Amino acid sequence: MGDALYNKFVKRWEEVTDLPPQTVGPLTPFYKKAAIRLKVMPWPLLVIGALLLVICLYLLIGSAVTLLVSILQRGF
Amino acid sequence: MGKQLAISGLAFGQNVLGIITRPYETYRRIVHKSSLWEMVYIGTCLALYFVTAALVKTSLFRPFLMTRQFVLLGAAATITFLLAVSLFWQVGRWFGVKENFQGFVLGWSYSLIPTLFWFLMTSLLFVALPPPRTTSVLGVTFSIVYLLISVTLLFWKIILAFLSLRFGLRLDFAKIIAVCGIVLPILGAYSFGMYRLGIFRIPFI
Question: So what's the pLDDT on residue B57?
Fold first, then answer.
């Protein structure tokens, strides 16, 4: 029982440490912060990011977003 | 074979839920443990979408035209998938990829789920609320909501594609950016070709 659990732990440990930790130079702390939020249930962050982007787009081009959507709706 | 299909079906359902709630952990599992049988389910979902798109795109209910449209969409999506996988794999090898082709193919296949959601949503909305959108309050509100959903799905797609490259090709962040810098312009040119041929206006990648 103990051996089986230990073997399972070792297998899991090897799986998790299979890839070396990601670093992006001076931006590593920001990358880590973002990655933590994106690893589990990323939707709140994705929706907030998308909302900011769409608001910026609306402020930039105004009601022309309807034109963009009309093009996208024919895009399938 | 039946047993394998059933097991893969369960794994597919579990993985689809996983990429929604815990993408990182799920992708590690997909790349290391999943079976190629799961691609049968991904392929079936895509085929169901192509049937829907063929129905929507063909204005007249003519079996020949719908079959032609279905075959065209299916073939184009398959070629696009093979091209994307081969390009990422080949360019990844230049950057010192370690061999796990099956894991990468499976990872990339699962990254088609957000694409499928977007195309399905767009096809159904094309029937329910056909374009063009007007600049009325309702038109602008719909456009903002549509863009919000589209951008959210795009972000999700980017995360899954990133994880495919990270776990499947075992690349680090800088190498992923470099590989994308080489592959995406080629896929862009290919997508433009598809657009000119009138097959996919938005690339099915």
Answer: 84
Please work out, in degrees rounded to the nearest 5, the angle formed at the alpha carbon of residue B168 by the alpha carbons of B166 and B169: 70
The pLDDT tens digits of the residues spanning B61-105 come to 788 888 898 999 999 999 999 999 999 999 999 988 776 889 999
Residues 6+ apart with CB under 8 A from A61: A68
Radius of gyration of chain B from its Cα atoms, rounded to whole angstroms: 18
pLDDT (mean) for A24-28: 88
Alpha-carbon span B203 to B193, nearest angstrom: 10
Work out the minimum CA distance from A3 to partner chain B, whole angstroms. 22
Print burial letters for B12-39: b (CB count within 10 Å at least 16), e (below 16). beebbebbeebbbebbbbbbeebeebbb
Inter-chain residue contact A38 with B147, CB threshold 8 Å? no
Which residue in chain B is spatially nearest to A20 when comparing CA positions? B172
Task: Name the residue ranges covered by the structural domains of chain B.
Answer: 2-197
- If you search the block for the tokens 């990844």, which residue do you land on? B92
Q: The complex's ipTM?
A: 0.88
Q: Give Cβ neighbours of residue B62 (< 8 Å, ≥ 6 apart).
A: none
C-alpha–C-alpha distance, residues A6 and A68, integer Å: 56
Closest CA to B177 of B57, B113, B58, B92: B92
CA-only gyration radius of chain A, Å = 22
Mean of per-residue pLDDT scores for chain B: 92
Put simply, the chain A residues between 9 and 38 with a CB less than 8 A from any chain B CB are 15-16, 18-20, 22, 24, 31, 35, 38
CA-to-CA distance for B116 and B154, rounded, in angstroms?
A: 11
